[in-house]
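Intended use. Records like the one below are meant for learning the mapping from a protein sequence to its folded structure. Do not use them to infer anything beyond what is encoded.
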Amino acid sequence: MDLSNPDPDFWNFGNFAISPVNQISILVGVYEETLPFKKESFKILKSMMVEEESEHHVLRAKTGWTRDGGKDTGWWVGYLETKGNVYFFATRLIKDRKIQNPNFANCRKEITKQLLKLVINE
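Structure written out for the chain above:
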């Protein structure tokens, strides 16, 4: 985060120094509640992360975005709980900022959901 950036969207600028592997590690800690937080905090976080829910699954996720080095980096990380299985994901898309793509923000979710449909059959 660059607080010296005059752009009103300043929190979306700067190096995004976490890898997809690190993202998954944190998500596993959230799911298993093994990170050093109170049980109530996990309950609140998991509730806030619900993206969609059905009788067959719960999808919990969070988006992320940064602009650094002339690139847009968009994230969508989370996990899908089904009857008997949990699938963790960390989708990271990178594009040159010079390339206009009004659907870039939605691509993170669209691509991931298409892949997750392969593991759930509703």
